[in-house]
Each structure stands twice: as structure tokens, then as C-alpha cells.
Amino acid sequence: xxxxxxxxxxxxxxxxxxxxxxxxxxxxxxxxxxxxxxxxxxxxxxxxxxxxxxxxxxxxxxxxxxxxxxxxxxxxxxxxxxxxxxxxxxxxxxxxxxxxxxxxxxxxxxxxxxxxxxxxxxxxxxxxxxxxxxxxxxxxxxxxxxxxxxxxxxxxxxxxxxxxxxxxxxxxxxxxxxxxxxxxxxxxxxxxxxxxxxxxxxxxxxxxxxxxxxxxxxxxxxxxxxxxxxxxxxxxxxxxxxxxxxxxxxxxxxxxxxxxxxxxxxxxxxxxxxxxxxxxxxxxxxxxxxxxxxxxxxxxxxxxxxxxxxxxxxxxxxxxxxxxxxxxxxxxxxxxxxxxxxxxxxxxxxxxxxxxxxxxxxxxxxxxxxxxxxxxxxxxxxxxxxxxxxxxxxxxxxxxxxxxxxxxxxxxxxxxxxxxxxxxxxxxxxxxxxxxxxxxxxxxxxxxxxxxxxxxxxxxxxxxxxxxxxxxxxxxxxxxxxxxxxxxxxxxxxxxxxxxxxxxxxxxxxxxxxxxxxxxxxxxxxxxxxxxxxxxxxxxxxxxxxxxxxxxxxxxxxxxxxxxxxxxxxxxxxxxxxxxxxxxxxxxxxxxxxxxxxxxxxxxxxxxxxxxxxxxxxxxxxxxxxxxxxxxxxxxx
Length: 637
Ligand SMILES: [Zn+2]
Ligand SMILES: [Zn+2]
Fold this sequence. Notes:
Structural class: alpha+beta
Oligomer: single chain
Number of strands: 28
Shape: globular
CATH topology of the largest domain: BirA Bifunctional Protein, domain 2
Bound molecules: zinc ion
CATH class of the largest domain: Alpha Beta
Helix content: 25-40%
Strand order of the largest sheet: 11-15-16-23-20-19-17-18
Number of helices: 21
Mean pLDDT: 91
CATH architecture of the largest domain: 2-Layer Sandwich
């Protein structure tokens, strides 16, 4: 596949850090040429968290070479050369390329083959520019930092192979990756974050803390929740249900499959077919043949029913799909009852389970899966109600962020491109303008942190993707909101307005807590498995010092009391020494430990220990339990 060429407009949007990183790629090429003057360079763009430069070189560069290359790079940075821009004609550029002077320190015997190819592909009306730092001249549209000395700190990170222009029929190149920052401290923090992220990896902690498993016989991308994971999920659902109930939502329930006709109506078929599991075809067989022997013979009337063509009359009407989204089912529930303006806004919520056919290469832990339980709801409203509804959804997000201690987030507001109406975007120019303006207004007025991204809306309307950063600064996409003015029409949804005229409602799809899979994956890494008490899979473990029957009876009574309060509590009544018991509980990151010995029993106290905080000292039994209950009730962090 050919990689897309960046337009001058896209390049102008490069952020400050991207400029710095791309400039470091020029310095990398300079250093490589000082060591291997025959090196031929292709493309060297900034990427997420760094940059790369593709190089063709007989010597196979390995991480052992990095020190030598970095030493040359440091010299180039110390020399503080300016990045000098030169505009040239196409002929001048070609002339230099033929002499091997592009992406080089001097003229060379060999032409700069990749750069010549790149020149051929620059549109005729686009200016051609070169950039020079010291002896190094490269064909490049920029932009860069002012001087090599502006590069505060950098590091080469890895080397991989890559085809020229991503095309496997083209030559294979070596791709050298690195990263750069304005300061040494930022660079150090970044690598410290990566180290910490490795320890917090949700796949690693998910296994160690017995939260979820993936099993080959169940299928790739189909996570199963162990009791500890299910406990977290139950708490999240409880939170969502309470929050949504208070906000006037009503809960519904829908099946996991639906007929093909539903998805044709919604427009998901055929456009979305690739992301859905293949359909189940219900064969048109005589029921008597399909049943095992020993069954009652089929009545003649049943047989006639089975032979009768289905209502839709099409041969495909008996194909069923696993649902990939809940919306069509919810739209049907809206349509199931006559609606008046007095019923609006109507907010239908469901933790719906959806199935999507992600490519197996794309599957990743809990982040990319094939089955997912979504914190879904569809809000139906009049256009006048849109602003207040959308605002309330945003408020809900902000409250959740606060509760989970998410300090950094970004809403990406994706809008349509008018030139692609009728192809990429449903052909409703007025509705696009109207809903985009309303959404933009709400975002602006609420002071929410957002960016607008053109040409990335959903087919049915503008979309908002929510990105959140975990406690250590790792980025996650956790949720999507969508404004939808097309589906209600396709489903012929109507309400009777004040003027007694039938009108089509607007719809908002929203899922602030995303899917359980992705959100729990995020939370595992965000908390490093140290969940707050209310979310903790095991809230309290009682550890007895010794195993005298009287002490075990007493501890058992405390366990009963805790469970009576709906606490997730366990007891370790093994004959192990207390230190071993504590160690085991700490390993599983059990939130609170009640350490009880004979003397504690006699004094009616409990030694309370909290994971990560150590021994909090002795409290009366009543006080210890009351503290826990109030922390959970307030969902304290
Ligand atoms: Zn450049
Ligand atoms: Zn939806």
C-alpha cells in the first residue's frame, strides 16, 4: 500500500515537538553519512512519540551501532548549525539528485535514487525546497526548528525493516527509530513512563491479579472475566445505572442477534459488513428432517408455516447477524410505542453486548476485542432539546473523569467534508451544518478541552472521540459519542409535536464509560491494579494469627458481618505464619486486611492494614467496618 504524501497544509500543522523530532531525523541522517557516506535515504517523518528515517545501506545497522551514531549526532547538535531553507526549481533539484547531493554531505558517485523518485511525485504546482544543516542537504518541505542546537535531548530506540513507500514490491529499507525532546528531563521522564507502563500492562496485571483470561478454545479477542474482573464490572455497571437513573435514563434489554433486514434498514449492511461476524443462515428445511428421532411428528399446520416464505419475502431474510451495535434495536424500541413531544427527551440505556469482527492481527488484550459490553444509550430529542441534552452528556463525562482521577483528557470533534457528501457522508448538507454548529457551541460554552478534526465524522453525523491519559501519561481512546440525524429517518422514527405534526427526532449515541473491556483495561493501568476500595475485587481479607477454633469462630462471625454489608470479603484461615498471609494478600493487591489475633479478639479490636499504606493500627470492630462502608458509599479514591 502506498503511504500517503503529506500536503503542505498538513505539514504546516506539525506541532512544535513534531518539528523538533523531524529535525532530529535530519541530524540522524547527517550522522549516518559521516560513518557510511554511501547511505541512501528515503523518508524521515515524525511519528507518535518520535521519528524515523528510512535508509538503504549494505551495512546492517543494529542497536550496537546506536552509540556510535548518537555520538556523531551529538557533534552535529553541538555545532548548532542552522536549518537553512532553499527554494529551487525542479531542474535544479533533479540536477542535485543525479549528482547524489540530496540527503548527502557532498556530491557522490551514485544518484540520490529515492529523492529523485520523490521529486517525480511532487505535484507540478508545489514549490520544491531543500534544507541544509552544516554539510548535509536534504530534499524536504519542512518545517524544522531553527538550529540543530534546539534539539535538547534525543535517543535512538530501535531499528526495523520497511519497504520503500510501504510497497512490498519496492526495495526493503532499514528504518531507524528515535525520539527527541526539548529537555533531558522530558526525555528521562518519557523513558521512566515506558518502564512504569510495562509494569502496569493490563495484560500482565490482568493475569497476575486474576481479572480476565483469553482462551484459544473460546476464541481470540473474546475475553472472559474471572470473579475478580466480574466484581469490577458489577461496580462499574452499578455506577452507570445510578448515574443514568438520576439523569432520567430508562433501561432496556435487547437480544444479541438480529435479522439481516434490521441492518439493511440501518445502513450498516452492506457498508459495515466487514466489521461484523459472518451471518448465520437459517436453512429452509422441513422441521421433521432437522429434528433428531424420537421427537413428536410435526403437525401438518406447522409444516405449512415452515414452508411459507418469510414476511419480507426475500431469500436473504432468514440470515441473522450478531449485533455489532445496539442502535438499531433501540430505534425499534423507540418506534414500538407512539411518541409525542411530551415523551421527549427519551433516553434508552443498556449495557449491550456487541460483537465485531476485528482482524486477528489487530486484536490486543482488552483494548481491541471481538466481544464487548458497551455503556450504551440512545437519547431521542427535539432539535430545541439538543443543546441541553448534549451538555448533560458532557457533564456526565466530566463527573466520571473526576471520580476516576482522570486529569488529562481530550475530546476530538470530527466533522464532515462537504465535498464528500453522498459518498463518505450522508447527503444532508443542512443537517450537517446545523448539528455541527450546535455541537461546536456546546463544546465551546462548556469549556471542555477539545480539538476539531475535519473529514473524520461518522457516516451519519458528527462524532466525538474521547481520549484520556492514565495516571502515568499513557494515552487511551475510551469512548465515542455521536450525533445522528440520519438513522432516525431511515427507521422512520416520529413523534407528534405540539402542532400535531409528525416530526423526526434527533438522536445522540453516547457511551461515557466506553466498553467494559477497554475501560477496565484502562483502569488496570491507570491504578496499576491498586483499585480504590469501592472498585477493589477483594475489599477485605481477614488474616488470623493462629488457627485456634475460638479465633476462627470469631473471625468467621466478622466475615459474615462484612458479607452481610455486601462487602467482597474473604478469610485466610490457613496455618501459615501471619507474614506469609500478609504477603499473599499484598501480592493480590487486596485493599484492606483485618489482622486478628487472640489478644485483638479479647480486646474487641482489629489491626487494620491497607495495601500500599501498611499498618494503620488497631480500631474497634465497629469503627473498622464503618470506615470501610463510608469509603465505599462515597466511592472515595
Ligand atoms: Zn525535513
Ligand atoms: Zn448507537
